[in-house]
Design goal:
alpha/beta, 5 strands, two-stranded antiparallel ribbon, three-stranded parallel sheet, 163 residues, Rossmann fold
C-alpha cells in the first residue's frame, strides 16, 4: 500500500481486512431482495445496505488490490462473502442472452495469491480453481484489467537439513 502512496502522494487507501473483520454471509432478506424485479425495485428495508456500501467502495477505487491465500484449491469463504455482496444483478451486472455484462467502470485489479503448493508452471501439482473463478467474477461486473501475482510453494528453507 505504501508503494501506491509513494508513487502518488495524496493517495487515500481504503483497507478492508476480511480476515480480521469478516463479512457476514448473505442472509435471507438479501436473497428476497434479489429474487425478482419487483423486490429489487422495492427491497426489504436494510437488506442491501452492506452490499451497497461495498459496491460504492469498489466504484470509488482507481485501483483494487486483493491479497488472498488459496484455500482448498480456491478462494477463502470470507472473500466469497465479499464477492456475493458486490455481484448484484441490476446494480453491478446485467444478464443478457449472450452472458453477463458488467456495469462498473474497468480499472486495474491486482490479485496476489499465496499457496503452499504449486498451481502454475512446470512444478504445478494441484488444480487452480481460484484464478478462473475470481477472474470471471470480477469480469462479470466490468473489472477486466486483472493482474495475478502468485507466491507458490513452500519457501526453499522449509524442510532443508541443517548440517
Amino acid at each position: 500500500m505504501f508503494i501506491f502512496q509513494a508513487a502518488a502522494p495524496g493517495t487515500s487507501i481504503i483497507r478492508r481486512d476480511l480476515g480480521a473483520e469478516p463479512l457476514p454471509q448473505t442472509e435471507a432478506l438479501y436473497a428476497v431482495a434479489l429474487a425478482s424485479p419487483a423486490t429489487l425495485a422495492a427491497p426489504p428495508m436494510g437488506s442491501l445496505n452492506l452490499s451497497e456500501a461495498l459496491i460504492r467502495e469498489v466504484e470509488a477505487a482507481d485501483v483494487i488490490v486483493i491479497g488472498t491465500p488459496m484455500h482448498n484449491l480456491t478462494i477463502p469463504s470470507v472473500l466469497k462473502a465479499w464477492i456475493d455482496q458486490i455481484l448484484r444483478v441490476g446494480r453491478t451486472m446485467k444478464s443478457t442472452p449472450s452472458g453477463k455484462v458488467g456495469m462498473l467502470r474497468d480499472r486495474p485489479v491486482y490479485i496476489g495469491v499465496a499457496s503452499g503448493g504449486f498451481f502454475t508452471g512446470e512444478r504445478a501439482n494441484q488444480p487452480d480453481f481460484l484464478t478462473p473463478y475470481l477472474s470471471l467474477a470480477l469480469s462479470s461486473i466490468g473489472l477486466k484489467t486483472q493482474q495475478f501475482l502468485t507466491l507458490q510453494g513452500p519457501p526453499h528453507w522449509i524442510g532443508a537439513r541443517h548440517r
